[in-house]
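User: Teach me something about this protein's shape.
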Amino acid sequence: MPSKSIYNNIPLSYVYKITNKTTKQFYIGFRCANIKLNLSAKDDLLKVYFTSGILENDLRSNHVNYNSEILFESSETIILNDTSHFISFWYEQILIKEQRKNPLLLNRKYFDPDTMSGMFITNKAPKSAFTKDSIPWNVGIPMRESTKKLQSKTQSERERPSIEYDSRREKIQCPYCNKIGAKGPMHQWHFNNCKLK
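Assistant: First, the predicted structure itself:
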């Protein structure tokens, strides 16, 4: 249900829905930082703000592949200031809870207003369990160079810390046992805590 705000140019906290045009997967989110930026929802979403969810990187580069809609704007911002953020947050949580069984929902957790506790959406099928006919969310998105470099390395190369990093760490020597090591662990186990003190 699109928002019918009479406050089009007044910055209000809002709840939004981003939908991938190809896969029809969607993400529901909430935003209140636009108020400090003095931006209305229509001037903020996909112009300044690209969600804080799992779509953020793709939205920045390919936002034309997504539809966005403002579902709710909190007019109470004008009167109650901080309380309005709370109202928008709960509206977002209720929408996520209502859609939690929809396999196209990308949100992975929500705060249940009935139990007042955080809930993970565990009944979601893993991405590998989608049917062969479904289109993966990242089809057509070019792979980043950094990802290509990581994939070209073997697993042991990715996991092994580089020698350069280790050599940059400051080394110190314990005056009691003459052991040399990194500053943090040495202060924990040596100097005033050394067994040979």
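Now, about its shape. The two ends are 72 Å apart (CA to CA). Strands lie at 14-20, 26-31, 66-73, 109-112, 117-120, 171-173, 180-182. If you'd like, I can walk through any region in more detail.
User: That's plenty for now, thanks!
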